[in-house]
Amino acid sequence: MPADFEPLLLLAQSAPIADRPWREFVASLRQALDANYANLIFRRRDREHENLEVHDGAGVPDWLWSRYAAGVFRLDPIRYFAMEPGRVYAYDELEGVVGLAQDRFRDEFLRPAGFYHLLLFRVTEPEGCSIWITVTRPEAAPAFGHDERELCARLARHLVPILSCHVVLLDRQADIETYRRASETLAIGVITLDAAGRVLAADPAARSHLRASKDLRIVNDRLCAGAAEVALRRRLDEAIRLQETRSLHLGDLDGLDLLCAPLRQRVDAPPGRAALLVYLSARRPHRRDISGHLAELFGLTKTQARLAALLAEGRTLAAAAAEVGLTEQSARTYSKEIYARTGTSRQGELIQRILTSVAVLT
Known about the structure:
single chain, alpha+beta, five-stranded antiparallel beta sheet
């Protein structure tokens, strides 16, 4: 067994969380097997014609991918989903290749690219994702031997749980992206602090609030609140020390609201991890026209929906009527229909109904 297995396994184990996932592992695999090219392809059976690839090559021609994308891929005879997971194949052992009288894919693509000797293997996980790993050598190099095959087979066995972790991380990232988009749309920013009060992260909505605020900023990884610094320090300390949520308003009536929500510290979390979430919000006018969505949600006409959107911003009936181009009497008639269709009876209830609807997420 080549001595390179343990370093490769360590790289594979950290590959899903690396800054450039899987790239260092693929590059090291190519070097460990003295190959001129290595790639790793992610693909799902329900999306067989879509893939994500990580590759590393030494002396691979510039035309490689342009020629492949231009139509050479149609010549590929390999039945990738027929490959037995965990088994290591040479090119001539692959289903679809065995028994070919003429192999144009090899003659017109693989060999001109310098891919004379190939090893391939497939790894699958329970959720349906597969990866295929290929390493190649040029014509002048020796064919892959028993030791190289055994290294690949051993890697294939260890990659199964690693691929499962990769898929779980992708799911978690999708969840995070969903909530991030919602929080940005609702203009709720989040700043993450550790137990010592150091800023670990601030999402885009939070940074937008900080740029617009004269009352709060980040200095040397600390939240600073100017004249309200003492009050801010007290709220942050209480939230972390007492594990209780605390709130604070900074500035004038149109200033910044803060909610300091502690995160319970897990025993298995290392020091310096997130201990407190600081939610930020500020009163700001709507910058998006949500009237089309209000019309669809509540069965309103276009004019009624525009009037409802303005009332939800806190406009008086007279001001909203003037902006829409209605008389106040007509607007009053419209508002009764709006209240009936939204299940409300006065403007305060209408504001709550609309601001808690999905229309504001647009």
